[in-house]
Amino acid sequence: MDYEFVWYKAFSKARAGDRELLDEHIREIYQSILLPMFTRKCNSREDAEEICSLVITKFWDRFFVREEALPENVNGYLYIMANNAYIRFNQTKDRKKKTTVEFDPAKARQSFDSNSETILDFDSLSEHDEKEIRHVALGKALKRLDEKCMTLLRLFIFEKKRMKDIYSSLGIASANAAAKKKESCISKLRKYTYQELQEVKENYHG
Predict the structure, then answer these.
(1) What is d(CA 174, CA 193) in angstroms, rounded to the nearest whole number?
(2) Contact 50, 6 (CB under 8 A)
(3) Which tens digits make up the pLDDT trace of 58-107?
(4) 3-state secondary structure 4-36
(5) Per-residue model confidence (pLDDT) at position 5
(6) How would residue 22 be classed by pLDDT, with cut points 50, 70 and 90?
(7) Does residue 151 register a pLDDT over 80?
(8) What are phi and psi of 78, to 5 degrees?
(9) In the chain, how long is the greatest CA-to-CA distance?
(10) Rounded CA gap, 52 and 39, in Å?
């Protein structure tokens, strides 16, 4: 029996404080529809997960956080969103590989340590201050990392800790596993920073 989506009911319950049905719907469309579709298209589960996560994040922000009116055909709308994200992902993938983003070490440390939103204040930016815009993007990208990645990168980059000295305190099985986790975290941060850099520039100049 096919899964039945009742988006209007799910959102209504979620806005009343019961998110169980909405979370279930989102898991179902992510795992059963979007992820298989884009894994086939991309021939890469990692790329597919990135595209699908971007779609779900944008969907959540628009229709739950900002409470925009739901489209009549929610699944169809998600499908269009996903295909647009796929097209954009392919258009930027080559540029992402060629793009290097340099950071001032002091400001990078501030981005890691700060819980404030000051680095996200567009009004404080000069139109031509590309370096400051890059740090806005870094600050936004860091907020997308999980706590373990943040802690691992802080210890490794700024406190110069070795994997063999920190892996157990992070709940990681071995120094080798911590090294692999570090590479994964750095890869995520690069991707997120590039994505946020494009969005910051679009928002600022758009």
Answers:
(1) 28
(2) no
(3) 898 889 888 899 999 999 999 899 888 888 887 776 555 444 445 555 66
(4) CCCHHHHHHHHHCCCCHHHHHHHHHHHHHHHHH
(5) 93
(6) very high
(7) yes
(8) -65, -35
(9) 57
(10) 10
